[in-house]
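Encode chain A's predicted structure.
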Amino acid sequence: MAKDKRSSPRSKCLLPADLEFKEKNKSIAERTTVYNISSQGLKLVVNFKNFEVGSPIDLKVYLPEKKLSTALKGEVTWNKYKENKLEVGIKIKKMNQEAKSEILSWVFPRWVKIDKENKKEKKREKKAKKK
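Encoded structure for chain A:
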């Protein structure tokens, strides 16, 4: 297994986002989802465009529960196809720090709670199989 090179842990999430890019001199915004996020980066899954490593990214991330949205600028650091979709790793280059803190403080506690619940459920399933 490859060593994780991240300097800050990612928190699992499902945040709506609009990916903004230019194609043939037209500005296009496509809805996508942020699947995990940290203070330095995030992962998107897209099915409408191939983003090469090093490509600049403009993204607007939404936190509907807090009625918050914020724009960010980033750069593609990795990409891979999985189940007919492109997973894209984004390094955050520019983002409002207050909005970033708000998103991270909302996402992280929920991720920890969900992770604990998933572990408990797996233990229950394992015990049920032994019986």
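The chain has a mean pLDDT of 80.
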